[in-house]
Amino acid sequence: MIHVTVVGAGAFGGWTALWLLRRGARVTLLDAWGPGNSRASSGGETRVTRAVYGTDRVYIDWVARGLSLWRESEARWGQKLYRQTGALWMFGTDDDYARASLPLIEDAGLSASELTVAEARGRFPQIDFAGVRTAFWEEEAGYLLARRACQAVVAGFVAEGGEYRQLAVAPPLFTGEALEHLELSDGSALAADAYVFACGPWLGRLFPDVLGERAILPTRQEVFYFGTPPGDPRYLEGSCPIWIDIGDGSSFYGIPGNENRGFKVADDTRGEPFDPTDGDRVPTPAFVERSRAWLAHRFPGMAGAPLLEARVCQYENSPDGQLLFDRHPHAGNVWLLGGGSGHGFKLGPPLGQDVAGVILGDLQAPEAFALSRLRQVEDTPFKTQLLGRA
């Protein structure tokens, strides 16, 4: 029986560990602060699930397969993790990103269509469509309960016989062409046949010689929850979908409801470089006011809404927006997996299933995710998330 150690219990690591276990491997899963913790890229309350991905068929197919796997997991664990609200895309600029997805989404068995602005306005009168040129609707889109899902995956992994340990790992030391063991924060060493590092914004710190600062760059991202008017259902689930608003130089998105937490608003533009371990997670007044002004513009009934909660998280993406999944160039038993925050959470179940297949020799890793291509895009400006596969 092959023994695989997975470092990181977020969306990618947790699902990879679970699928490896289900395939018959012995699996040890490690995380420094626990699944869904507030430092992790997979932490926080909610994540959007949607299938608009331009012409990136692999992601669209994963979204379709992922929806089935999310529902199957909900039934298995007796927990509601996916909420279907539909997604409204609004474009004040070029809409090729969404338009090109429509036939691929249909091929994948999902539903997406263009709405006229008049149709969208009639359907969602609480939204001011000023400046919106085109609109698209995704029927099966919605959101996932992120923190809860991470914890459910790890609980399921343990219940099915996996070993989970809440410990940090030291940067690996290689001898020859393989990794022999990991040094853990409790002073012990852990040896395995193969290792998967799915540790999000910490990948660059663990592998500075291979990834450096540009290949996987953590950036500071602020998220806000505004209070809805008392007794007003227009901004709650059932009346309001998740929404993505892409204008000239801006891209905001948001999620209604979420167990009465508030109306979530986030600016999807990449923020400043951020230290995920020691970075201060206090929101910036300027970003609060920017989001409040945008909210009043697009949702006039929310003008002057009080700020109920604020979060500072991080994105950790590659310059071209694609995921990273490849062997370490100097250690054949080490795999690097990451670059997905901002768009990868919903892909966890099918991605983990395929990663397990690659590690066990059944599948080939997609060339688009290869480490070698990062050297070619190293000096390329980072894309915004929604137009760069968010």
Poorly predicted tracts of residues: 384-390
Binned, the helix content reads 25-40%
**Shape label:** globular
Strand elements, count: 19
CATH level-1 class: Alpha Beta
> How large a portion of the residues is in β-strands, by DSSP E?
15-25%
CATH-defined fold name: D-Amino Acid Oxidase, Chain A, domain 2
Describe this protein's structure:
The structure is a single chain. By secondary structure, the protein is α/β, with parallel strands linked by helices. It has a single domain (3-388), classed as 2-Layer Sandwich (D-Amino Acid Oxidase, Chain A, domain 2). It contains 10 helices and 19 strands. The chain has helices spanning 11-22, 57-77, 96-99, 102-107, 117-123, 146-159, 203-206, 285-298, 348-359, 372-376, and strands at 3-7, 26-30, 46-49, 82-84, 87-91, 112-115, 134-138, 142-145, 163-165, 182-183, 189-190, 194-197, 217-226, 242-247, 250-255, 263-267, 307-317, 324-328, 331-338. The strands form 4 sheets. Strands 6-7-5-14-15-16-13-17 form an 8-stranded mixed beta sheet. The chain has a 6-stranded mixed beta sheet with strand order 9-2-1-12-19-18, with helices on one face. A 3-stranded antiparallel beta sheet has the order 3-8-4. Strand 15 and strand 16 form a beta hairpin. Helix 1 crosses helix 9 (348-359) and helix 2 packs across helix 9. The longest helix is centred in the N-terminal third of the chain and has 21 residues, at 57-77. Residues 384-390 have low confidence and may be disordered.
